[in-house]
Every structure is written in structure tokens, then in C-alpha cells.
Amino acid sequence: MKVSTYISVIVPCYNEEQVISETYKQLSEQISVIGKPYEIIFINDGSKDATIDILKKIAETDNRVKIINFSRNFGHQCAVSAGLKYCTGEIAAIIDADLQDPPAVILEMVKIMETEQANVVYGVRKNRAGESKFKLLTARWFYRTLNAMSEVKFPLDTGDFRIVDRKIINQFNELKEKNKYIRGLISWMGFKQVPCYYDRDKRFAGETKYPLRKMIKFALTGLFYFSKKPLQLATSLGTFCIGLGLLYFLWMLIAVIFSIIHTVPGWLSIIGIIIFFGGIQLLTIGVLGRYIGNIFDETKERPEFIVNETINF
Ligand code: UDP
Ligand code: MG
């Protein structure tokens, strides 16, 4: 009889050749402490370096290591989704490949899950070493704005580092949306979710795979998938502008009747108004475009990711 897996560790990897062996070593060391059957699923998200070769070598020597090899780079969130789809554990841990989230914290999370009878234990960062001031500030600002705008409340200072139980995994795999904002979706699901506070380390090696461009894209997914407020922004802005326009018109009328101004109405003011209102129109069309783009993405029925090969499954 096949022994069932207790915990699946899900590790998305994109160009992580410098850390991946160390990650494997530390993860196996820590997870084996639990003393129950486990699997470590590495998702190679179209790395352009030797990540996949290193992973294959590891998988040859240890059949608890499983690999999902994507056909190209689909992004961190898709990689984690793939891991959740393929994992067989009663519970799953999601952790970055770069050892910024210490593997030892997973043990703490498992303990908390047991004592609190929780369905999700999510990591909350107390300290974040080796992160730029800019990243810290933007992250802080972003999560607070998102919370203010979103219909769902998100825990602050939380990434995807967490453990989830089978109930959550199954619910997650039922979700049809393709652009997944995982931390938001899991938080949205409800059940019992409890925090686990930890200190976030520096990257073990290599550099961030989230340049500003990807960070903004990720943040916008969170915003436009979880909030309808930007859509309502168009209405408020429009109303505001109509009011402003009316006041301006009234003022001109009075000014002309009572000869307060004598100058020929200048083109500068007209141009100014055109630019201002043009800007507002473009802005609101842009907001609409975002949502239409999202609808477009979701109706295409393309898969979230394409798997090239799987190993040890
Ligand atoms: N990652 C991925 N695909 C991508 C970008 C990143 O699978 O397109 C993985 C990466 O290998 C790492 C995790 O996602 O395991 C988080 O990335 P990173 O550490 O670069 O982000 P940061 O911690 O700087 O926000
Ligand atoms: Mg990192």
C-alpha cells in the first residue's frame, strides 16, 4: 500500500541555480523533523539557467523530490498554482526558492495549525532583512491601499509563505480564474486562518526575480481583481468635473455680464480645459480597459500554464 503524503512543499523556481541545492538541503533537513512522509515539489518556471539540470540530478537521488517543468516562464503565481494542483499532501507549504523565508518556520506553522485547528497558517513578516527601502515602502503602502479599496480584507505584511490544509487546496483547485492573486484568494476563502510571525531573511544568493515592472503588474492584479473601486472612480471623477465645468461656466457668464474681465477669451484657458478633461477621459477609459482586459483574459479559456514534463510523480 502506498503511504500517503503528509506534507507537500511547493517551491517555485525561476533562474535559481545559485540557491536551489542549498534550498533542497535545508528543506529536507527541516521537513524530515516532522517525521511523516513528505514530498518537495519544485516548479521550474522556464528558467534560462541550469536550475532544471540541478533539479533533475537531485530528483534522481531522492524520489521525494518532484519536478514540474513548465514550457516557458509563466510567473510565480502560476507556478504555485501548478504545485497546488499536483500536490498529494494532506497539507501543503508554499515557500520561495531563495531561502528568504526560513524553512524552519514551516515546523512552527505546522505546530500552530495543530494546536489552533487552523486551515491556513500564513507567515507575517516582522523584519525584512536586505530589502531596499523602496520595496519596503511600496509594499507597505500597497497593502494598506488595497485593504482600503478591497471588498475582502487582507492580512498585512503577508506574502505567499504559508501552509494550507486539504480543504483549502481542494477549494483552490476549483477556482476558475486564471490570473490568480494567491494570497488574496486564500484570504477570501475564509475558514480558520491564523498568523505566524517570523523574521524574513536576505536572499541566500542570486538576485530578485521581481523587478519593478513585475512588481507593478502583480500589484495591479491584486487591485483590479479584488476591488471595484477604480471602476467607480470614473463616476466620481466625472461628476466632479461636471460640477467644476458648471461653476466655471457660471463664473464666465457673470464675469462677462458685469464686465469683470475684458480680455478676449484666450486659447490658453481652452487648451488647459481640453487637456484636463482629456486626461480625465483617458484615465477613466484606462480603468474600464483594465477590467475589460481582465474579462478578455478570463474568457479565453487558455490554460494557466503549460507543463513540459513532470518527474517522479
Ligand atoms: N519566481 C518564479 N517565476 C517568476 C519570478 C519568480 O517562479 O517569474 C520565483 C522565484 O524563483 C522565487 C519566488 O518566485 O522562488 C519569489 O521570487 P523573488 O525571491 O525573486 O521575489 P522577491 O522575494 O524579491 O519578492
Ligand atoms: Mg525572494
Secondary structure: elements and pairs:
Layout: E1 7-13, H1 20-33, E2 38-44, H2 51-61, E3 65-70, H3 76-86, E4 91-94, H4 104-116, E5 120-128, H5 133-149, E6 158-165, H6 166-174, H7 182-189, E7 193-200, H8 212-226, H9 229-257, H10 267-299, E8 307-311
Parallel strand pairs: 1-2, 1-4, 2-3, 5-7
Antiparallel strand pairs: 3-8, 4-6, 5-6
The structure holds uridine-5'-diphosphate and magnesium ion (MG).
Q: Give the distinct bound molecules.
A: uridine-5'-diphosphate, magnesium ion
Rg over CA atoms, rounded to whole Å, is 25 Å
Helix content: 40-55%
Give the strand tally. 8
Distance between the termini: 16 Å
Describe the structure.
This protein has helices at residues 20-33, 51-61, 76-86, 104-116, 133-149, 166-174, 182-189, 212-226, 229-257, 267-299; strands spanning 7-13, 38-44, 65-70, 91-94, 120-128, 158-165, 193-200, 307-311. Helix 9 packs antiparallel against helix 10. The protein is elongated and about 90 Å long. With 313 residues, it is α/β, with parallel strands linked by helices. The longest helix is centred in the C-terminal third of the chain and has 33 residues, at 267-299. 51% of the residues lie in helices and 17% in strands. The model has no long low-confidence stretch (mean pLDDT 87). It has an eight-stranded mixed beta sheet, with helices on both faces. It binds uridine-5'-diphosphate and magnesium ion. The site of uridine-5'-diphosphate has 16 residues, from strand 1 and helix 3.
How would you briefly describe this protein structure?
By secondary structure, this protein is α/β, with parallel strands linked by helices. The chain is built from ten helices and eight strands. The model has no long low-confidence stretch (mean pLDDT 87).
